[in-house]
Amino acid sequence: EVQLVESGGGLVQPGRSLRLSCAASGFTFDDYAMHWVRQVPGKGLEWVSGVTYNSDSIGYAAFVEGRFTISRDNAKKVLYLQMNNLRGEDTALYYCAKDVRRLRSTVNSDLEFWGQGTLVTVSS
Amino acid sequence: DIQMTQSPSSLSASVGDRITITCRASQSISTYLSWFQQKPGKAPKLLIYGASSLQSGVPSRFSGSGFGTDFTLTISSLQPEDFATYYCQQSYITPSFGQGTKLAIK
Fold this sequence. Notes:
The complex is a heterodimer of chains A (124) and B (106). With 124 residues, chain A is an all-beta fold. Helix content of chain A is 0%, strand content 53%. In chain A, strands 2, 4, 5, 6, 9, 10 and 11 form a 7-stranded mixed β-sheet that branches. Chain A has a 4-stranded antiparallel β-sheet with strand order 1-3-8-7, with no helix packed on it. Chain B is mainly β. In chain B, strands 2, 4, 5, 6, 9, 10 and 11 form a 7-stranded mixed β-sheet that branches. A 4-stranded antiparallel β-sheet of chain B has the order 1-3-8-7, with no helix packed on it. Classes of the chains: A mainly beta (124), B mainly beta (106). The A-B interface holds A 35, 37, 44-47, 50, 59-62, 95, 100, 107-117 and B 1, 32, 34, 36, 38, 42-46, 49-50, 55, 87, 89, 91-100.
């Protein structure tokens, strides 16, 4: 059974940092691109970042503006999102999601399976 | 960036109805289009990818069509569990989503 379990969310002050993790199981993690997508409660979905299976290609949404870094550890089967200089508008539920297709060489993915999310609240 | 626009933003329908949701891309995306269903408090669920390919385990009453800039999601006979919010997403370039369509019971 595919499982994606996000962690690392919480309350943080503006300008501070947070690192999110997504632990994967039930599939061959190092065969699939992985992504972070966020959702303000009650609002729509917003893609944040993605990384290919081998980390050769990485993409970010324009609003990231160099503040976030996505990475993965295929040996540990974990996806990360390092978020620096957080702003109030970054407050959201952050999901990690798995590509539907194996060995895709770009981050232009169809998002097959999603975790349950971790809530990030940026407030003083 | 590619902008995705869904219509309508909300829709009321009855069990057994046939409904269609439309998604329009700001530029051609070939068939790089997915549809998701999201229920309150739950993660999105992939229904359709490649504009018309049904994800494994998704009931056949769901179907997708389209090419280029205009796409549709059709539910042929609404069931009680289908009342949810639906999103389209393009994967032609880095992903982007439509704003969502909330499907409510009439």
